[in-house]
Amino acid sequence: MTDNNDTAARISIREVCGDAPLTGTSGIKIHKLIVSHWAASKSVEVDFAKVRPSPTFLHEAIGRLIGQFPKAEIVAKLRLSGLSALDKKTLNGIVVNQYHALVNAEKLKNRPRIIPKLKE
Q1: Which of the chain's termini has less CB crowding within 10 Å, N or C?
Q2: What is the pLDDT at residue 77?
Q3: 81 has which bridge partners?
Q4: What is the tens place of the pLDDT at every residue in 61-90?
Q5: Is 86 exposed, middle or buried (CB count within 10 Å of its CB: 0-12, 13-18, 19+)?
Q6: How many CB atoms lie within 10 A of CB 28?
Q7: For 16-39, how does the pLDDT look when each residue is reduced to its tens digit (9 = 90+)?
Q8: Judging by DSSP bridges, how do beta strands 43-47 and 78-81 pair with one another?
Q9: What pTM value is reported for the model?
Q10: Side-chain half-sphere of 11: how many Cα atoms within 13 Å?
Q11: What are phi and psi of 78, to 5 degrees?
């Protein structure tokens, strides 16, 4: 279920996804809910109580926020509750990898293109 009282939105993974395995597809669904509440809420809480997310789910639901919103805004707005220690560690790795991928993409984009000359 999702609740939004104009200052805080709460998304319960268990209520939205039920008992089904938490895959990338369900992660996309949660990501869309997070984004839909983002502008209208001061904070967005995602409740992971009594669920076991896959790494793909975490990447699709949370990891995709990296690059979509500024880091400071994500830190200030996003609240994650009910994650196990192992899931927190997995999510941390996903976030770090997403951030590094974003930084590397910017470096490549700004790199001058060198076109080699072919010998005649």
Answers
A1: C
A2: 96
A3: 47
A4: 999 999 899 999 999 999 999 999 999 999
A5: exposed
A6: 14
A7: 999 989 999 999 999 999 999 999
A8: parallel
A9: 0.83
A10: 25
A11: -85, 130
Phi, psi of 35 (to 5 degrees): -65, -40
Reply yes or no on domain 2-110 having CATH 3.30.410.
no
Q: How do the domains of the chain map onto residue ranges?
A: 2-110
Half-sphere exposure of 109 (CA within 13 A, CB side): 6
Contact (Cβ atoms closer than 8 angstroms) between residue 90 and residue 58:
yes
Instruction: State the pairing for strand pair 2-4/8-12.
Output: antiparallel
* CA gap 74, 108 in Å, rounded: 25
Tokens of 2: 């999702």
Q: In this structure, are residues 95 and 89 in contact, taking their beta carbons and an 8 Å threshold? A: no
